[in-house]
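Researcher: Quick test of sequence recovery. Tokens follow.
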């Protein structure tokens, strides 16, 4: 009994030492997380409960900012633009990214070159991309209208105003965003594809599976985690898109491309200087992203379990 008690005490002492070492190693990361994530969020939440113009002392008004945004038509109009942007960019980037990654995962001459080409737009700045595509979409001397004119599909006296037409401007930005980010998602999908053991494909071949069946029953189920990660990245990017719109259209024409991020910018730094209200909108968007992400994780896990 004495020996058993001694062994238990030594085991407890060693376990305590291991825990102290582990927590000591985690502590710096935890401190950074609290300083740069938890504290800013709590501070933002406090600001969202005030009326503040960024200069004078903030005045506490409770949840009035949140009540105001519920009835603010501009908030919901901006969110509708984000919804349009999100549906098409998330779908296109995930589907195109997976297809391109699947082909770039094959062994053929020049595959490294093509991988670099697809990733190149990712390393370019948003401002440079916005100005480049603004020039391409220019109705008078832009590349697209010049090509259409050469092909006889556009009259020189009646050019298509891509970024000046409320029905076309958002679609132009969607195309640019897809072009900009698809390469990034290709890299993520490539990383996932290269982790799938070849033995699984060999077993599927022995069972008589064709190429499509391998993709459907082997590749896609093995990629659920990567697909979910890509979708979450696309989702957060779609709800925070700002740079492209700011450089290409400034939210116009007639607010047809004004997303929620641009509306928050105008609310906080524009003529109104309503920092408290703008912060409340950001808090609201944060919880929207949190809910959508949770639903996506639940649905993906459910689909994987059903497989």
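Model:
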């Amino acid at each position: 009994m004495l020996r058993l008690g001694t062994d238990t005490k030594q085991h407890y002492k060693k376990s305590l030492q291991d825990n102290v070492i582990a927590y000591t190693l985690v502590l710096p990361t935890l401190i950074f997380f609290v300083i740069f994530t938890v504290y800013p969020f709590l501070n933002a939440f406090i600001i969202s409960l005030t009326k503040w113009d960024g200069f004078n002392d903030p005045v506490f008004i409770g949840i009035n900012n949140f009540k105001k945004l519920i009835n603010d038509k501009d908030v919901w109009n901006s969110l509708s633009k984000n919804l349009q942007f999100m549906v098409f960019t998330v779908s296109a980037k995930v589907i195109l990214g997976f297809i391109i990654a699947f082909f770039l995962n094959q062994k053929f001459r020049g595959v490294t070159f093509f991988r670099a080409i697809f990733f190149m737009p990712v390393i370019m700045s948003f401002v440079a991309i916005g100005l480049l595509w603004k020039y391409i979409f220019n109705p008078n001397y832009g590349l697209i209208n010049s090509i259409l004119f050469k092909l006889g599909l556009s009259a020189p006296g009646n050019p298509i105003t891509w970024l000046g037409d409320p029905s076309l401007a958002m679609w132009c930005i969607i195309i640019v965003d897809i072009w900009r980010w698809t390469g990034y998602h290709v890299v993520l999908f490539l990383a996932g594809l290269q982790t799938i053991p070849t033995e699984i494909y060999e077993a599927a071949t022995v069972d008589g599976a064709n190429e499509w069946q391998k993709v459907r029953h082997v590749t896609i189920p093995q990629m659920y985690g990567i697909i979910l990660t890509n979708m979450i990245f696309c989702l957060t990017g779609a709800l925070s898109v700002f740079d492209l719109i700011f450089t290409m259209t400034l939210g116009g024409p007639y607010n047809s491309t004004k997303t929620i991020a641009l509306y928050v910018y105008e609310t906080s730094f524009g003529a109104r200087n309503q920092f408290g209200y703008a912060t409340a909108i950001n808090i609201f968007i944060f919880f929207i992203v949190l809910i959508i992400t949770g639903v996506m994780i639940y649905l993906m896990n459910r689909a994987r379990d059903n497989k």
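The longest strand covers residues 50-51.
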